[in-house]
Amino acid sequence: MSNPSHLLDEATRRLDALRSTIERWNYEYYALDRPSASDAEYDALMNELRAIETAHPELITPESPTQRVGTTPQAGFAEVAHPLPMLSLSNVYNEEELRGWAARLSRVVPDTPFRFVTEAKIDGLAVALTYVDGAFHRGSTRGDGFVGEDISANLRTVRNLPLRLNPDAGPAPAAIEVRGEVYMRIADFDRLNDRIVDEGGRPFMNPRNAAAGSLRQLDPRVTASRPLRLFVYSIGYVEGGIMPSTHLEALAWLRSFGFDATPDAMPNETIDEVWERCQWWLGRRDELAFQIDGVVVKVDDLLQQEELGYVAREPRWATAYKFPAIQQTTQLLDILINVGRTGALNPTAVLEPVNIGGVVVSRATLHNEDEIERKDLRIGDWVIVQRAGDVIPQIVQSIPERRTGEERIFVMPDWCPVCGAPTHREPGEAMRYCTNSACPAQLKQHVQHFVSRGAMDIAGLGEKLVDRFIDLGMIHDVGDLYALDWEAVAALDRLGEKSAANLRAAIEASKAQPLARLINALGIRHIGERSAVLLAERFGSLEALALADRDTIANVPGIGPVLAASVFDFFHEPRNLAVIGKLRTAGVRTESDEGPAGNGGALAGATIVLTGRFAGLSRTDAEEQLRRLGANVTSSVSKKTSAVFAGEDAGSKADRARALSVPLLDEAMLRAVLAGEALPDPPAKPARARNAARASAGADA
Ligand SMILES: [Zn+2]
Q1: How far is the CA of 645 from the centre of ligand 1 (A)?
Q2: Which segments of 529-618 does DSSP mark as H helices, in order?
Q3: Is 640 considered catalytic here?
Q4: CATH code at position 18
Q5: Which of 184, 188, 549, 575 would give a disulfide with 207, using CB separation of 3.0 to 4.6 Å?
């Protein structure tokens, strides 16, 4: 503090660092179309540079990035001097700064009411278009504001750029310069990036970047293949015609000539209204078809604009309210794996905490390993993170230009990070799964499935109690349910001895559940109620199923190779076998009454469909009893269906039964059949027909 020359040295050093970094970013952005910093990061450095220069005006040099708007043209395009400089706007970031801007207007031109116009600030590339005698003559980029690049050939390919001014609007001026923004709609941008990725290219970072890259192609045919669009927002100059007297009139005039003028421009009488309108646009940002990064506020009256004039290289009569950033640059510190309740391994990005639009973000979703590979994300990378609306933050891309060589390539683990079991990813699937059914991460869901009504049907063992048993370490797999310490269970608060006794009885009773329910209860991937029935019928015991090879399982009608692989893998995971051992030791039945398929029951060969609600028994129970009698229970009615039992609220299946002349029976008849009565008009089907019916049952599954 006491040494001003020391402070000045420090400011000079910081200025040099800022200027060289900004210049490098400018070059990457404008000349290479490969930015290595986010807009917010760029703005932050620019603001710091401006602040230092404001405090030390003696340090401003002509080469400072604050002294120009863009960068020099790239070789390949002719230079075009702008007759009227294309200046950039000052920025305001909040209400206070907006009011400060308006207050300065009143100091320059006192006692004058101003009318304002607010319009969206399209995130694209600024261009100047000249028309001579009504025909498109030349178009150029902003460049450094004084000299731009002649990109007429490329601009001609922009679909909504009028090559002739609409003659219906009246005589065209001898010459007119129109200013606007070339941009890309978000949907078009997404499609373009998909195409580039398909062709093995590197996708664009955002629509603005894509528009800029497309517009500055040396080959106009490439530009023509890109979905560029144009919004115009002002008139630079008019020769041989009359300049409108307000900005809103100018926009209307441009529209009548055939231009897409900036949409929803609105007059605002007070700065309160202006601020309200800025918030309105901010609220709509995520719903628009194109990206906007703020709101432009202008004084409407062009004479007032002239009176207000310019300060430095910015018009005093306009400013841009910049939205809070939705993208930021930060570092990817690590990639963590969470194992979900289904056993899926979910990668999550751990980020150096960064403020994005007012929210500190330290985690981002990564979906799956393919996404990590596609975006080429490495641990230690600088990345661009985006937050939009309430969506979980996402990593847009890595910035390979900023790599130091210390970054690590992430590999999805072959072993579950929770339990150490092997992980497995099926071809064609995006997710990798832990193969261990006793994995603690999956255990809660697994136990809930095991005790559910369609499985072992253990009443009184709800989700909360399952969670408590697991959290207290009382069970480590479903086998432990049959070896619970009942004194400890009864001692759990709010449970009591009565409930504990009931639960114990229910668990005891579940030991006698049919084999199909047990197979379903084991939670083998892809195996549900219906395929469990097919497996129980074919193999007759858990032991036989466990010993079967892949082909034998795959050949069961309705199973096929994918389910077979899942079953086979399950019975070759030692942890699963250990659980089955516990179940067997506890006395859980692992054989079916009927034994393997071939011992036909009373309904052997019959294909039955249940529909609607039955008063006295559940659909699951009815289906199971029918199956025990040898029937195939399917879900769709066909000519092969032997009978349809319809309960209350039976719908289209009953109609279909009538249409196909399939016997349609009621609940009383269902009870009679379950009690041993034969089906009325029993379909006489040979043994081969049964197999055919089972195959179709499998197809229904
Ligand atoms: Zn696991």
Answers
A1: 43
A2: 529-539, 542-547, 550-554, 560-570, 574-586
A3: no
A4: 1.10.287.610
A5: 184
